[in-house]
Design a protein that fits this description.
single chain; alpha+beta; 6-stranded antiparallel sheet; fatty acyl-CoA hydrolase activity; HotDog_dom_sf; PAAI_dom
Length: 161
């Protein structure tokens, strides 16, 4: 069977990117506490960054990023990937209207696999939507070290209201 090439992805408007960045980085307080920043926002996937800070280190972890921070970061990035996919699905609407669609998005299932200790000065988080249904979205996430080494993986399901 021959595989079809993926359809070209239409980039987001600056207004949409700015609005989604404000929601994700500024209005979601927990993301602000984590220092989670959007590095790349595309309809087919998102990339974020988080810098190592002493308050994010586990109590007895010897400068390893706490597993709860990894889990929360991957969960947030999975949600962001869903927001981007919803935004891409409704490109016929103005950016401001699409940004109002994210008010009721919640995690219904999350699995994190910790593969290696998260030691480093900063980390990259990636997420993509595997399936976007009318009520539920499924995602896959990765947590990488500054050298690109895979440290943790995640899979999540999100309810869309």
């Amino acid at each position: 069977m021959t595989r079809q090439p993926p359809a070209p992805v239409q980039p987001f408007e600056d207004e949409f990117v700015t609005g989604l960045r404000a929601i994700f980085e500024d209005r979601i307080l927990f993301n602000r506490v984590l220092g989670l920043k959007i590095a790349e926002l595309r309809p087919d996937g998102v990339i974020g960054r988080i810098a190592m800070r002493q308050e994010l280190v586990g109590h007895f972890s010897f400068n390893r990023l706490h597993g709860g921070v990894i889990s929360a970061g991957l969960d947030a990035m999975g949600g962001l990937a869903v927001m981007a996919a919803i935004g891409a699905r409704h490109m016929d609407e103005p950016p401001a209207q699409r940004l109002h669609r994210f008010g009721k998005l919640g995690t219904i299932d999350l699995r994190i696999d910790y593969l290696r200790p998260a030691i480093g000065e900063h980390f990259e988080l990636r997420a993509e939507v595997l399936r976007l249904g009318s009520r539920v979205a499924s995602t896959r996430m990765e947590f990488l070290g500054a050298d690109g080494r895979l440290l943790s993986t995640g899979a999540g399901a999100y309810i869309i209201s």
